[in-house]
Design goal:
Layout (H helix, E strand, L loop, with lengths): L63 E5 L16 E5 L1 H8 L15 E5 L5 E5 L8 E5 L3 E4 L13 H21 L3 H8 L12 H9 L1 E3 L10 E4 L7 E2 L5 E6 L4 E6 L8 E4 L8 H8 L16 H11 L2 H13 L7 H15 L6 H17 L3 H18 L3 H11 L6 H14 L8
Parallel strand pairs: 2-6, 9-12
Antiparallel strand pairs: 1-2, 3-4, 4-12, 5-11, 6-8, 7-8, 10-11
Helix pairs in contact: 7-9, 8-9, 9-10
């Protein structure tokens, strides 16, 4: 199974039935995909497709294929322009989808802001067709297919191990994916197969390889195994990676769509990028995380030897817990300059902007930190409003859970109003008392 928390097996001979592990990648000797090359002694799993009505409890059923939002079998994009997704999921995930408040809501639509075309980094990419501001919704799209990015255990394969077990596992995974793929519109089948495949030599079939190469993680589906669910998209799967991306994305359960937002201003004609990996790790680790996608990142940050030091500083010094400690100290010690934390936080924001990490949790945390500082000083409502507006846009872009974030803002920032100012006035009053009347 593919999953961020699963072990990587260094020795293929260690693979046994029932184990969970990350699927290998690269050129693996003896593991070229061949649907007819089942290992000796393994006849293949029975792929039985049974049709159920919408009220079925699916008792004893492990995986189902369900079209969400539900549309007629003869639906077209003309009759249903928002599209739909063929989902290969356990029954519990279907129940989660259908129980989502407001599901299915129509897609959020904005004036066209992108085009797909050749990218300087190779292959195809997405480009802005008009200027975009931080926080703007660029595009929302439902996936063609959602399925797990891994594979399920085989039945009747306990005697297999190593390459033989992995070969059988990947052959069966490909057969399973053929079912949702077969339900796609002809134009979606063509779009799916036109996507790149960086897994041609590791045993993955053409469908599994494209799912592994182009799938975005779909958050919010309960019942997920260690292998997260991936969605492959007609348009959004064309977005290229950068270690300093100008967008962020999140999956919205209500519209059942992936939403792409700008996290900084984007010029007309600029390539729109996203991140395929964590950004607060060293270049060498990012390159390792990106290796399964079949390219070596050559973005400005990966080519800058000083970038790693700045990202290490972001992890160490600009975290929300560090900010909380600094804020507490500054509130208590009014002999520290009023603008001490303002200058520190302005520098932190500039460092993250230089590193292209404006869509990170670190950046949002420091915007909220700035709101807290100014609120404690109680002297600049306009500046607080400016930082809060930027923060709200990034919160919506990050996960759409604005109400939860606003409650956090009220709990952390609002009670600090005037705290620094009141403390300072109290200390100045004590300083004016004769020494014999002072406590302590």
């Amino acid at each position: 199974m593919l999953g961020s928390n699963l072990p990587v097996l260094e020795n293929m001979d260690e693979i046994r039935s029932g184990q969970q592990f990350k699927l290998p990648f690269g050129n693996i000797d003896g593991l070229k995909y061949d649907p007819d090359a089942l290992p000796e002694g393994y006849s293949g799993a029975a792929h039985l497709i049974q049709e159920f009505n919408g009220n079925n409890t699916y008792e004893g059923v492990h995986l189902i294929i369900t079209r969400q939002p539900t549309t007629p079998p003869n639906a077209t994009l003309e009759s249903h322009p928002d599209g739909w997704t063929e989902c290969l999921v356990p029954p519990v995930v279907k129940r989660t989808i259908l129980s989502t408040p407001g599901f299915p809501a129509p897609l959020d639509r904005v004036p066209p802001a992108h085009r797909i075309g050749p990218s300087p980094s190779g292959g195809m990419g997405m480009f802005a067709t008009r200027p975009l501001e931080a926080g703007d919704l660029i595009f929302a799209e439902r996936a063609m297919i959602i399925a797990t990015g891994g594979v399920y255990a085989l039945q009747g394969a306990d005697h297999l191990k190593g390459i033989d077990y992995l070969r059988a596992l990947l052959i069966e995974a490909e057969k399973t994916l053929e079912v949702p793929y077969g339900r796609l519109l002809p134009e979606w089948k063509e779009a799916f197969m036109n996507l790149s495949n960086s897994h041609e030599n590791d045993g993955s079939g053409p469908l599994m390889g494209r799912l592994r190469t182009n799938g975005f993680t779909i958050c919010g589906l309960s019942g997920a195994r260690e292998a997260p669910y991936s969605g492959v998209f007609d348009v959004l799967s064309r977005i290229n990676h950068s270690c300093g991306p100008n967008t962020t994305r999140h999956f919205d359960m209500k519209t059942f769509a992936l939403k792409l937002y700008a996290v900084r201003n984007i010029k007309e004609g600029e390539e729109i990028t996203t991140s395929y990996c964590e950004l607060d790790i060293p270049t060498s680790q990012r390159q390792k995380s990106l290796a399964p996608y079949g390219f070596q990142c050559a973005c400005p940050h990966c080519c800058d030897p000083s970038s790693d030091a700045r990202r290490a500083r972001i992890r160490k010094e600009f975290d929300s817990s560090v900010n909380a400690e600094r804020l507490s100290m500054w509130l208590e010690n009014t002999r520290l300059p009023d603008d001490l934390l303002i200058k520190e936080t302005e520098e932190a924001l500039k460092v993250m902007e230089r590193e292209g990490m404006t869509g990170s949790a670190y950046y949002s945390a420091n915007l909220m930190h700035m709101c807290a500082i100014y609120n404690a000083l109680d002297n600049d409502v306009a500046t607080i409003t400016k930082y809060k507006a930027r923060l709200l846009k990034l919160w919506i872009a990050a996960d759409g859970l604005l109400q939860t974030k606003l409650e956090m803002f009220k709990m952390i920032v609002v009670p600090l109003q005037g705290r620094r100012k009141k403390k300072s006035v109290a200390i100045r009053a004590v300083d004016r008392l004769p020494s014999e009347n002072r406590r302590g």
